[in-house]
Amino acid sequence: MQNSLTSRRNFLKKMAAAAAMTAAASMFPGIIFASEQEANLPKGANLDWKKGPCRFCGVGCGILVGVDQGKAVAVKGDPNCEVNKGLLCVKGYHQIMCTQAKDRLTHALVKKNGRYVQTPIDEALDLVANKMKETITKHGKDSVAMYTSGQSTIPEGYVASKLMKGAIGTNNLDCNARLCMASAVAGFLTTFGADEPMGCYEDIDHADYFITWGNNMAEMHPVLFSRMLEQKNRRGAKIIDFATRTTRSSTASNKSILFEPQTDLAVANAICYEIINNGWVNKSFVENHVNFSKGLTNMGYGLEDKFKFSDKPTKIDFESYKKFLEDYTPEKVAKYSKVSVKDIKYLAAIYGDPNKKVVSYWCMGMNQHTRGTWINNLVYNIHLLTGKISQPGNGPFSLTGQPSACGTAREVGTFTHKLPKGVVTNEKHRRLAAKIWNVPYENIPAKPTYHATEMFRAVDRGDIKFIWTQVTNPLVSLPKTSRYRPGMEKESCFVVVSDVFPTPTSDVADVILPASWHIEKSGLYGNSERRTQHWDKMVDGPGETTPDAWMTIEVAKRMGYGDLFPYSEENHVEEIYNEYRQFHEGAKHGMAPLEVLKEESGAIWPYVDGKSTQWRFNAKYDPACSNDKDFHFYGKPDGKAVIWQRPYEPAAESPDTEYPFWLNTGRVIEHWHTGSMTRRIPVLHKAMPAAYVEFHPDDAKKLGVRNGEKIKVSSRRGSCILPASINERGLPTRGQVFVPFFDENMLINDVTLDAFCPISKEPDYKKCAVKVEKA
Amino acid sequence: MPIKSYLAHPQEGQKEVLMEALSKIDNCEVIPAENKNLLIVVTDTESQTDDEKVKGSIEAIESLKLLAMVSGFNTPKNN
Ligand code: SF4
Q: Which of A118, A237, A672, A713 is in the most buried spot, having the most CB atoms within 10 Å?
């Protein structure tokens, strides 16, 4: 390398190399560039490599962080981790670089007379505790709220739940996983009575077909996609991409099938119609292991404040389900889904072939959907009708976005309706929580309060007067931020934000608490395949940065709940995990002891007799099966899973003459969600410096739009100006535009709609109506 | 002042030879894959003419089977 190179040229070169590595990874799955991983190492460094999970996505890759004299200087993939076998994506390799950002939050900041004043952390925590107590005294327990994250560690989520539900006695706790995984949870609970996928990543090594439903895995789950590509190259496994936009995943797949937004509901039903019509039903599986039900229809879209809905399931029989499917013949569905009859039959034939193993993967496309619970149910229907479930290489697999959406949000239960085991509406579950938490049973309210969208509506209305957000950036990630930003700015609500970097959310805070980053604290995450992963603190954080769990504990103590939070600062992670594990004791959800997690790169629950359970509900692999049959869906009282009759219903808002385009929003490989970390990693920021609006070239031509030209995207809620992107990263279908949401300078969520699935309460970020014009 | 990155595919069994040959070219950095038959090449030159010269020298190497410039990241938006 030339000595005269400026640091800018060095960045550009690194970026060029990173780009090549990303390209190489999609062509050569499993490729490792170890020399690059170690390229930045100081000469003669005596590195101590410490293991942990990646900070970013729900794949949960194992990383090794090289520490030299108390500083993290390198990251490489952990070759001993079964998830990634040494491979990382471009975000994973560069993750620790964000800690060097100049604007790191190192001390508490308290707003005084409109200015942020650096304040000792103890004083800031006093203020938070006093404010919370005072608000409760004046306005009642339900006037305070916490909003946490699928990126919170297990101990962080656990103490937040214990403080809010056990100590204070309010269910005003929800988290950003509501925005990404709630439909998956509702889908699992309605179909199986038990949350989280039944299979594991090893399915990839066995499947003949991977069908991805509205899921750009090449960018969002890159390491898993690499593993799939490896199977494609090595043994001819096939990848079928079923989506509304052509992406890097589509081009790397064997076949790409595009559908009109929202019509995945109809296509899934058409696949089931075909399976039944062609006699491909696995009769003995269905007879032994499945019930049929239907629920309410025309559920609405949750657009109004205080919207309420509860489904009313009714049992039906196979014949009435079959009759219902007559509305979904491939011929009828092809008309409005824009999927050809041939392609619908092609998909059905793959699922229907008893000699082919099929895994279905999905993530945000199916979850961020006003009928998210339904579409999850419908894909389960396909697997249940054919009996392709809970076996190596056969199964539906809902992927998570965040690194601990499963481990923390879903398993610890940082949703308003959840407890670490079960739900607040169930007396037995409340009694168990009260016992382990050592609080009076009456403390835990039996009724859920606010889910995420409704929580920020309540802030806007003035019903919530104190909110504490941790590890999340709602004023970039919520839908319809054009309402919720002014809501959070109102004097009526005292806002506390814990974070590592300043964000548009911390901009409206009354108190900003400086959080420790990932490797500056110990913690545990739980990834998409039910794998619990532990890491020990690797380096010290700067200034007065403090782990979120410890800040919650300190506030709890100051509020007078010290007896309930007897943990020590040094060992609180261990102490909390050991307490939490009691909730899940038993064969159905037993969690690995900490000693095991410290040794291994994670363990999959149920962890029984020293062993991870890779395929739940299958008696061959799952010791919790107890019905003396081959499968046991023990989440349901009668041990049977449910095939749901769910119709197609239109989106909450569809293009019309005034707003003629669909707006779809999503992510890019370089950035982690709202970009607060990855935009501070120079290589990633350079690679993708700003958001854009993607057009189909025909639409661009019709509108006379050129690449890079400034375009105003407007909806009935708000607008956003972005440069046009034509034939670059992705290709939306005609009549659709796509915008990534990572860029806080171009807030596309000012434009999106806060419609949600009435069952899961998860908003739909993939469909609303917009107009586009030159800015 | 172009900076470009390429995937360089060696002829069968010639990875080391290609690596060696590439290392001798000025303004050219090589990152070998640990476990696959592939090298990443990053070139950093002062002018378009130099860039073309370097590319020409790389393409003339016998142990090289295919040189593919990386696209995707390398769009106008990324500059
Ligand atoms: S795939 Fe996800 S978990 Fe793995 S390195 Fe990339 S961001 Fe991290």
A: A672
The rounded distance, in Å, linking the Cα atoms of A306 and A368 is: 20
By residue range, what is the domain housing residue A373? 183-295+313-399+634-645
Q: Where are the beta strands (DSSP E) in A86-234?
A: 108-112, 115-119, 144-148, 173-175, 209-213
Contacts of B33 in chain A (CB under 8 A): 24, 28, 31-33
pLDDT digits (tens, 9 = 90+) for A671-694: 999 999 999 998 899 889 999 999
Q: With contacts defined as CB-CB under 8 Å, which chain A residues touch B36?
A: 24, 28, 30-31
* Per-residue model confidence as pLDDT tens digits over A448-487: 999 999 999 999 999 999 999 999 999 999 999 999 999 9
Segments forming the whole domain that contains residue B28: 9-73
Please state, as a whole number, how many other Cβ atoms lie within 10 Å of the Cβ of residue A308.
9
Nearest to A12 by CA among A668, A683, A680, A690: A683
Cβ(A769)–Cβ(A655) under 8 Å? yes
Q: Could you tell me if A382 and A439 lie in one domain?
A: no
Nearest-atom index, ligand 1, CA of A88: 5
- Chain A to chain B Cβ contacts (< 8 Å): 101
Q: Are A323 and A194 found together in one domain?
A: yes
Q: Which two tokens stand for residue A519?
A: 């490797």
What number of H helices and E strands is found in chain A? 25, 31
The answer to the question of residue B3 being in a domain is no
Bridge partners of residue A396, in order along the sequence: A360
pTM metric for this prediction = 0.89
Q: Residue A287 sits in a domain of what CATH number?
A: 3.40.228.10
